[in-house]
Amino acid sequence: MLNVSNITRRYGNFIAVDNVSFSVKKGEIIGLLGHNGAGKTTIMKTISGFLEADSGDVCLDGISVKNNAKALQRVLGYLPENLPVYPEMTVAEYLDYAADMKGLKGNTKTAEIKRAIKATDLSTKYLAPIDTLSRGYKQRVGVAQAILGQPKLLILDEPTNGLDPQQTHQMRKLIKEIAQKATVILSTHIMQEVNALCDRVLILKGGKLVLDDKLSKLKTSQHIEFRTNCTELAIISSISGVKHVEQIADNTLKIEVSKINFIDKISAEICSSIICAGFEIYSIYAQKQDLESVFNHINNNDQNSQQKEVSNAA
Ligand code: ATP
After folding, report:
1. What is the rounded distance in angstroms from the CA atom of residue 25 to the CA atom of residue 44?
2. Residues 6+ apart with CB under 8 A from 304
3. 165 Cβ neighbours under 8 A, 6+ residues apart
4. How buried is residue 221: exposed, middle or buried, by Cβ count under 10 Å (0-12/13-18/19+)?
5. Ligand 1 center–CA 42 separation, angstroms
């Protein structure tokens, strides 16, 4: 279990990560989303102990990164955005070196290198110098070093970057397999990736964590459409949790609820109010939204409010 508690990280006076907290259970895959500069890399580097937080702490299975960065890094697999590989090394030499860095020895080391090579389908390039590899193969080397030693925590920055569709499919399968025994944090700009892999989504904006929710819950919008002959909108708008009601077509009401967690309860109350008032209900449909629209909504709201602040200031 990973616990990130109130981490803040500054670069000079600039706050890149601002009091961020979240927990991730074993077996969970979380997607870290945010525009460029939102603070994703800074958080990932802080969690992995490569960057120190100014305040707050990160604990993995009770090991605090503050004084035990090396211990945490032994059970960590990290694929950074730009992997610092030595281009003149062959894939074999590099993985041998990466295994040494993780403290793997003897038969375990050999078995782990074999496993990583197989999982990332790198056997044909085993003896090739890294600088002769295509971008996609280099990415596979990055993933292979990250999964050496069967890490408890796997942090992947854009893992399918540069991979072809078949490799992307294989990589996603591999990440899911690893996640059965580990905690996985995935940073990506590809919404499809998050949809395909993640249980939960964290959205960062300006260094702050602005959303932490299950993907399934995010996809349920706050809007419900009722096909009903009810014409007395006031009996619905007076229900606690109903934010707005409007008739959008004949026999069709669109209702916005303010508390998404209580959407079932509020829908049930709306039904009984309509029926008790002597009207009929023909169908009910809870609208769905996709991750992209949630992401855009969060970021556009920010832009709108910034624009407002600017125009107010002017
Ligand atoms: P991207 O998607 O572009 O990789 P990100 O979400 O990973 O962005 P970070 O790299 O964590 O964002 O950067 C967060 C903020 O901190 C940005 O404004 C960035 O310019 C700033 N920053 C990052 N590293 C440094 C540094 N070494 N010195 C000064 N500012 C930095």
Report:
1. 16
2. none
3. none
4. middle
5. 6
Predicted TM-score (pTM) of the model is 0.79
Other beta carbons within 10 Å of 6: 12
pLDDT digits (tens, 9 = 90+) for 144-184: 999 999 899 999 998 888 788 888 888 888 888 888 888 99
Q: What is the mean pLDDT of each run of 10 residues along the chain (314 residues)?
A: 94 96 92 93 93 94 87 88 83 95 93 93 93 88 91 90 84 86 89 90 95 85 91 94 93 88 88 96 87 84 45 41
What residue's CA is closest to ligand 1, atom 18? 37
The alpha carbon of 176 and the centre of ligand 1 are apart by a number of angstroms equal to 28
The Cα 96–Cα 254 span in angstroms is 61
Among the listed residues 95, 184, 179, 180, the one whose alpha carbon sits nearest the alpha carbon of residue 133: 95
User: Which residues surround ligand 1 with Cβ inside 6 Å?
Assistant: 11, 14, 16, 34, 36-42
Measured in Å, residue 16 CA sits from the centre of ligand 1 at 7
**Cα(230)–Cα(255) distance, rounded to whole angstroms?**
13
| Cβ-Cβ contacts under 8 Å for 87 (sequence gap 6 or more) | 129, 130, 131
Which residues lie below 8 Å from residue 264, measured CB to CB, with a gap of 6+? none
- HSE-up of residue 174 (Cα within 13 Å, Cβ side): 23
Residue 129's beta-bridge partner residues? 90
Residue in 216, 212, 246 with CA at minimum distance from that of residue 31 = 212
DSSP string for residues in 239-302: STTEEEEEEEETTEEEEEES-GGGHHHHHHHHHHHHHHTT--EEEEEEEE--HHHHHHHHHHHH
The tens digit of pLDDT for each residue in 180-211 reads 888 999 998 888 899 889 989 999 999 999 99
Nearest Cα neighbor of 204 from 292, 297, 299 is 299
